[in-house]
Amino acid sequence: MVINIGKAEDNDFVVDDPYVSRHHACLTNKCGEDQWLLEDLGSSNGTFVNGTQVIKKYVTQKDEIRLGNTYLLDLLEVLKSKNDYSKEFADLKQVYDKYIEAKVKIQSSNQFKIRIFQSLPFALPGIVGVIIGFLGKGSHELFAISLFIAICAPTIGIYLGAKQSAKVPQLLQDLANQFKIDYVCPKCGTFLGEIPWESLRKRKQCPVSSCKAKWVKE
Ligand SMILES: [Zn+2]
């Protein structure tokens, strides 16, 4: 991880001090979390560790880091500020879009099937009537079968329609469960709710007070 420090807004840690350069220094952690390589990026007023000017030096939280003439850099504050999860957050847009797409697909295909099943009771007697009209003249057996179908069809249609609508809650439940796993803050893992990604983007950071992950880089 590299943390850029300076007066310019595009730094990870912005310092507002007259003796600090626009791109003053950077910190890189190459040896684990406690030790950082501090590098001066050609600043006008220099970078100092424990009073000595440095170009490159490994530092820990115990060292006194000074940028320019007066600004003392608190390493802990700098590390806390590195909360940039904009890349990970951007990936969540796809998660949300896919969820909505799948949900709509389940609901609309279900409505179509239910409608077919429910129209069956009304369509069948008509079809049966036509068959009888053409073929069934004088045939008592065919008439009996047709009558049977005409009476049973509504029941079957209602049964199939009900069965189909019962399938849907399970499908939606499975989808929602997966969504709860995928649509979470990239830092703290808190489920973000069924809130459109665009709306979350406007919040810019995680509302969990212990997290404060930045979702949008400013
Ligand atoms: Zn969070």
Strand content: 15-25%
Order of helices and strands: EEEEEEEEEHHHH
Helix content: 40-55%
How many E strands? 9
What is the distance, rounded to the nearest whole angstrom, between the alpha carbons of the first and last residues? 18 Å
Please state the average pLDDT score. Answer: 86
Rounded Rg: 34 Å
Largest sheet, if any?
A: 5 strands, mixed
**Globular, elongated, flat, extended or rod-shaped: what is the shape?**
rod-shaped
Q: DSSP helix count?
A: 4
- Low-confidence parts: none
Structural class of the secondary elements?
alpha+beta
Query: Cofactors and ligands present?
Result: zinc ion
Strand order of the largest sheet: 2-1-3-4-7
Blueprint of the fold:
Blueprint: E1 2-6, E2 13-14, E3 25-31, E4 35-40, E5 47-49, E6 52-54, E7 56-59, E8 65-67, E9 71-73, H1 75-81, H2 86-135, H3 140-182, H4 197-203
The chain binds zinc ion (ZN).
